[in-house]
Amino acid sequence: MFAQLSETRMHWIRWGLTIAWLLVIASLFYDPWTRAFTEPDHPWSPLRLADACVEVQGECLAQQPYPLGTTLFWGAIVPSAIFILLVFGHELWRRICPLSFLSQIPRALGWQRQFKRENKKTGKVRYELAKVQGDSWLGRNYIYLQFGWLFVGLCGRILFFNADRLVLASWVLFTIAMAIFVGYWYGGKSWCQYFCPMAPVQSIYSEPGGLLGSKAHTSEPLITQSMCRTVLSDGKEQSACVACQNPCIDIDAERTYWNSLNKPETQFLRYGYVGLVIGYFSYYYLYAGNWNYYFSGAWLGQTDQLASLLNPGLYLFGQVINIPKLVAVPLVLGTCTALGYWGGRWIEKRAKSYSRRHHIRIETLRHRIFTLCTFGIFNFFFIFSGRPLVQLLPVSVQYLYDLALVTLSTLWLYKTWRRSPELYSRENLANRFRKQLEKLQLNVGSFLEGRALSDLNTHEVYVLAKVLPGFTREKRHQAYKGVVRDALAEGYVNYSSSLEILQQMRQELGITDEEHRIVLEELGIEDPELLNPDRQRSLENQIRLTGYRKSLERLLRLQQQQPDPKVLSLQDSADVRSLGRQYSITPQEEEWILSGFSPDASLVKKAEFLLAQLPALIDCYRALNQPLLREHQGVLTLLRENISHKKELIVRSLLETLEQLQTDSVALTLAGGLQQASPAILGELLERENWRDRLSPEILQYLTQPGVTPASCSLDLSPEIILGHLEALLEDPNPMVQAAALYLIAQWETERSQAIARQHGHEFNSLLLREMVDLLLSWPSSSPTHPTLSDFPGLEKSVYLLNSDFFHRMQSETLIALADRAVVKVYNRGDVITEAGDTCRELLLLIEGDANIHYQTGGERRVEQLHPGQTLDELEVLTHSNSENTIVADSETTRILAIPVDAFDDLLDHDPDFARRVLELESRQLQRFVRSVQVPG
């Protein structure tokens, strides 16, 4: 709601509120006017002192007129902040908070601590803005630090500065000084993120979102919620984020909430805060022996707080408990905090057993407990906070005030109760998908009835995608690929977690797990840095780098508009160095971003990286062609095809780069390197695709000239080298590749494969791999033999399916699903496998031995021999008809892989790609059959 208010307007609002706040602080030092409003004989002031006795520990409290600075501070300013947080969210509070505003003074003046960095090779010196490191003590424990400061502040209120104006002013000025110092010591909003005692309160009341707050994950603007921003000379706003915290509440409060939901410090904060607030307000009763002491506001007039520190701090059942107030206050508040934390843990533990019985996710359960805690403590807080002033209003106004608070908090409860991590993720991905649909520029007007894509809810976006005529399989793949690219770039997913996190979206779009892996492979080729685990990826980091890049673009644009423009050296410019400090840019990030300003340099860098990947793939391919592995041809075929596919993707991407570079001298060098690295696949692509028309003659000459090094395969690699390549294949995302590599390792060193299974077995998510791990670990270590392929039924069936004519090049997930439901049947010579007239209930694949098909055509009998890899009666299975031929085993041992027709039909129904592939195969089979029976005319 308030996230889109212009920064210029908010700047003036902040100035106004800050000046007003400073005036209130100044009044604490000098205020000769407002005391009159509390004089008992004031003619009309509702704040005038009454003659009624306010008992404290059994005695009437002596009251004197007092200035109203503390009354205004505790009775209006603090309650207003809590109200704003719950109703409008942190996005308003963070943008108007005077303390946050003052903490940015060092940044505005350019006075911030920096670290000097010197490149030892080049001698270049640069300065980096100091930031709190996530793995530092402060980065790990800041929540406890902030809560501790909040605890000290509440104890200090009761003991020192509830009514003592000078102590309160000193405390506030000390806090302001600390905020300004932190603004100097650390970059960004480090005061707000790591030190401010109000930060825990903000988290509790404004996460996952305020009642009227905006949703950052579904918003169109790039600058969301209370993100740090700056106003350019042309009036446009630009992100000024330096990624001082990840995740950041200022960018997306709900994301921060779900990310921290299961952390122990969040549990402590939520439950401990409930106890702390209850303890704070309860202490007034425990101290005075009645509630009138608090609700009358008499405590605001006790300006001699320091004099009562050693007086008795508790009064129970009409008896004074002789514990000094200085000890009693932290004792009561600490005890209540501990009880609140332990009580919350106890409730959560009981609720977990309920969730298991009713199949409710623990995350959802904990979120709802947190939601109830916030709802309850908000209303409890407003029973007391500001009440001495509210009670001065007419009774009807008091009722309206209470009704408004309960209504607003109930609406917040209703809104927040329905949120869940799954819903947040679904909305997030739907918004990303919506943006990809917009990029495709599909004709959606006739389906939206005047609405825009941005108006569609999560469910409607996916429904639209399913009914759009122009949303072909290729466009669906393209859109999903764009979503994965953005999610990886923002750190929303990583290589390993993307399969699980994006699962629901794949179900909506009909994307298989295998297609997902293909997308990852393509992205790894198109943008190698995207899958680089060493790159720091987060939404905050991407925003920081984007802000830096846009500032550089603006700097270049302004330079070019000068009357006498000079060539700007991006590396040596003082303005660029200043921007680097402002956005806390590292040398590696600077090099990466600056290379993007030279498209050719960026292309060359990408091409060099890809070219460097080819030798490792080629060496692995050669290792798989060693005579030592010859007896495992079926498994080797699986691995070789996987590597060949990767090499083809790389070579094609390199050819696309050469097409863009054209006759650049670097392009010729790259072309020569490509020809030397992979002449075989290069030659196939040049012949099969239209690259000869797309590439310049000079590049083609380099690509087609004979290489100096002959394309030969060494046949004398040591077993250790081969095992090293096989272990590298265990990192492949394809479970069939991982299983095949683990199997081959077991053929040489069973103990080595068992060690791998023990160390990394928990990382394998595929049922195929888990089955292999269990079987390997159960294999006797003293056995003189190695496990064979038949000892791993899942892998064996998958390998035979992959090597068959019918299922060759099918997606791995489809093959694994088929293998899981298939069974192996063994026949002896002469056994009838199927007989003419039988109902075809299984798709049969010959995996070992031979078989004969006996055809009966009229009065003529014909016999055709089948060999391993061929399918039997597939047409009859597809049409659910009876077999027209008899099939007989023709070897001593004939093994058949039988796939139930129900399993086959299920995959046809749920896997469109499988259905399309089967249709293509059968079309080719029919074409061959028709040609074979055609009689020459």
Task: Explain what you see.
By secondary structure, the chain is α+β, with helices and mostly antiparallel strands. Strand 5 and strand 6 (237-239) form a beta hairpin. Helix 17 (421-440) crosses helix 19 (458-467). The longest helix is centred in the middle third of the chain and has 34 residues, at 325-358. It has a four-stranded antiparallel sheet. The termini are far apart. It is built from 41 helices and 16 strands. The mean pLDDT is 83.
**Class of secondary structure makeup:** alpha+beta
Main pleated-sheet profile: 4 strands, antiparallel
Going across the biggest sheet, name each strand in turn.
Answer: 9-16-11-14
Number of DSSP helices? 41
Low-confidence spans: none
Report how far apart the termini are.
80 Å
What oligomeric assembly is this protein in? single chain
* Share of helix, binned: 55-70%
- What does the overall shape look like? elongated
Give the SSE map.
Elements: H1 7-29, E1 55-56, E2 59-60, H2 69-88, H3 90-96, H4 98-103, H5 105-109, E3 114-118, E4 125-129, H6 137-161, H7 165-185, H8 190-195, H9 199-206, E5 229-231, E6 237-239, H10 253-260, H11 264-288, H12 292-295, E7 312-316, E8 319-324, H13 325-358, H14 362-384, H15 387-390, H16 395-417, H17 421-440, H18 445-448, H19 458-467, H20 473-489, H21 498-501, H22 503-509, H23 513-526, H24 539-560, H25 574-582, H26 587-595, H27 599-623, H28 633-661, H29 665-677, H30 679-688, H31 691-694, H32 697-704, H33 719-729, H34 735-748, H35 750-760, H36 767-778, H37 793-802, H38 812-821, E9 823-827, E10 832-834, E11 842-848, E12 851-857, E13 860-866, E14 871-872, H39 874-879, E15 886-889, E16 894-900, H40 901-910, H41 912-933
Helix pairs in contact: 1-2, 1-7, 2-3, 2-9, 6-11, 6-13, 11-13, 11-14, 13-14, 14-16, 17-19, 17-20, 20-23, 23-28, 24-25, 27-28, 27-29, 28-29, 28-34, 29-32, 33-34, 34-35, 34-36, 35-36, 37-38, 40-41
